[in-house]
Amino acid sequence: MKFRFFLLLTCLLAAAFFRCKPSDEEFSSARDLRIVFSADTLSFDTLLATRPSLSKRLTVRNPNSSAVMLESVRLEKDGGPYELIVNGRKANAVQNLPLFGKDSLLVVVDLTVPEKDQSEPFPVQDRILFELNGSRQQVVLEAWGQQARFFGKTRISKDCTFTAARPYLLSDTLFVEKNAQLTIEAGAKIYCQPNACVWIDGTLDVRGDSDGRVVFRNERSDGRYAYAPGQWKGIVFNNTGENHRMVYADVLNAVDGIQVLQQEPGGLLELNGVIVQNALKNVLYAENTQLRAVNCLFANAGGALVKAESAQLRFEHCTMVNHGLGLIPQEPVFSASDKKFSRSVRITVLHSILDGSKQENLLTDFANSESRFEIKNSLVRTEKTMDGTSLNLNDLQNRVNFQNIRAFDYRLDSMNVSAAKDRSVNSGTAADLLGKARDEKPDLGAYEQFIRKEK
Question: Which DSSP symbol is given to 405?
Fold first, then answer.
């Protein structure tokens, strides 16, 4: 009798136990329940047609104590360019998805912009719709797409012009052959994949302006791709003996930014208002050539920022900065030698800033008595003795105070004292890198001082 009683009691307790559910697993059908999102809108950068985006992540959380049943999670447009991965499942529409109380799920969004026969950027929009208990919530998806001109390995054998009408995407080397000239108009953008290189055997004429800079850079600019070095091979001038010009242009995130390779002396490369930044090796490498750079920014390299072999270089109102920012600089900011070709080096730096993470940023290796490295009226971080017109940044009282080097902003910040302020005399340079007029006492470097208003 007692055995039957205990057996019955055990069965009743077991039944009661298995019938009980935690409150967060009890589904509620209340129409006023809401889920919350990590963002109301997911925005993508401007993307080139047919090129995949960086994935965006959306967290969907149930803040309620009870569970909800998501009757549907789907894209509003069928067959659109966006794609969803919902809790690890690749599908643009999912039905009857449980979301327990205080729990969350992950939605990953990918985008491949479709081709469209127009030059202007175009919007690419959709919405993710979440339906539960008869109500609907949404997250907006937005991006801009642009149709590009695609180039594989290409040889330009006669004069050619790139315009700003559509961006260019290079997947391999673009050769400009001997006796051919590539002209690039203001506002043009040249995007480069890892194997891409702009190789000049002929002539390059880049005609940017302060309102329409010409851009050479890696293909992607979202997330970590925006500033990472080494994403394409760079620009090479190869034994041309010709004169080249680059005005208001950006060369970003290459293995080597600009290389001028000459076995015999010849040719002049003029850089005006040019930014060369974030190179895995050298930002600028020049051998057996003449180069004149005015109002230029050279920043961040794994090797020497500027490296010269038997070259004749002149820098006026340039800012040369190498603090690494993820790279470990292996050499000083400036390295010059006359030994590779046994020809003299002549380098002149005027009204400029040379700053780096090392205490010594000027490395010279001269064997020729005619080689010269002259720096006048500049700010330099060095352990060498400077002439009376220049200031040494190793002296703590001489500070540059850039606006924000971690955001790659090398303008002079007016909210802090800068030793570069009003230091130039008779520089003859009317405007700065941004096209801003210089006053009667120009500041050193590529930028006139940035005026920042107090909040």
Answer: G
Check whether residue 153 and residue 129 sit in a common domain: no
Strand, coil or helix: 378: coil
**Shortest CA distance to 252 belongs to which of 198, 317, 176?**
198
Give the type of residue at 201. Answer: D
Tens of pLDDT, residue by residue over 9-32, are: 555 444 444 444 565 578 898 988
pLDDT at 18: 46
Residues 320-327, mean pLDDT to the nearest whole number: 79
E-strand spans in 157-221?
A: 160-162, 168-170, 173-176, 181-185, 189-192, 197-200, 203-207, 214-218
Q: Which long-range contacts (CB under 8 A, 24 or more apart) does 357-362 make?
A: 357/322, 357/323, 357/324, 357/329, 358/329, 358/332, 358/333, 359/383, 359/394, 360/332, 360/384, 361/322, 361/332, 361/333, 361/334, 362/332, 362/333, 362/334
Please tell me which of 246-255, 353-362, 419-428 the model is most confident about, judged by mean pLDDT: 246-255
The Cα-based distances of 425 to 432, 433, 451 in angstroms read 15, 18, 21
The answer to the question of residue 6 being in a domain is no
Asked if residues 414 and 450 have their Cβ atoms less than 8 Å apart, the reply is yes
Q: Which two tokens stand for residue 334?
A: 């400036």
- Domain boundary residue among 104, 121, 145? 145
- Check whether residue 236 and residue 382 sit in a common domain: yes
Quickly state the pLDDT bin for 427 (edges 50, 70, 90).
confident
What is the C-alpha to C-alpha distance for residues 404 and 322, in angstroms, rounded to an integer?
14
Q: Using 50, 70 and 90 to split pLDDT, how confident is the model at 397?
A: low
Contact assessment for residue 403 and residue 390, using Cβ atoms and an 8 Å cutoff: no
**Same domain for 134 and 269:** no
> pTM of the predicted model, to two decimals?
0.84
- Does residue 31 share a domain with residue 96? yes
Residue 226 belongs to a domain with what CATH number?
2.160.20.10
CA distance 202 to 186: 20
d(Cα 3, Cα 23) in Å, to the nearest integer?
35
Q: Judging by beta carbons within 10 Å of its beta carbon (0-12, 13-18, 19+), is residue 430 exposed, middle or buried? A: exposed
- Residue 430 structure tokens: 């009317």
In which domain, by residue range, is 391 found? Answer: 148-412
Q: Which two tokens stand for residue 447?
A: 């930028």
Number of domains in the chain: 2
